[in-house]
Design goal:
Elements: H1 12-25, H2 29-40, H3 47-71, H4 74-95, H5 103-116, H6 120-145
Helix pairs in contact: 3-4, 4-6, 5-6
Amino acid sequence: MLYLELTLTLPKKIEIKLRKESEKSGISIEEIALEALCKGLNEKMDPLDRAELYEKLSEKYINEADELLAKGDYIQASEKLWDAVALMVKAIATSQGVLISSHGELFSFIRKLGEEKKKSRTQKTFLSSKYITSKFLRRLVARRCN
């Protein structure tokens, strides 16, 4: 699949709406914009292309996290890493014909995957990464506030 990276200049009102929808739904801004574009063009995305896109976005977020870590911005870096993990889970789900559109669906898929594969380790690893990220952020904020 050939990819086009695109930078959009948007009115502030649209940017704010995109960010709010992203926060509310747990879906990246890129995903929301792509869905709107596909809908506007009356085009459906092939599940394998969608899974590959999730992998590419995950790689992008990991690279951005590396840059943020180098700058000492640990909070933003941890958020990018969380997004990267979530997108990889979405890639797995999509390759199995499951479309995930919320945090709840993401956690449900992980639970289901752990049960189906009888690998509670998958579930534990994912859930512990979420726990570690939130714990890390709380400690970092507490240190900076003191």
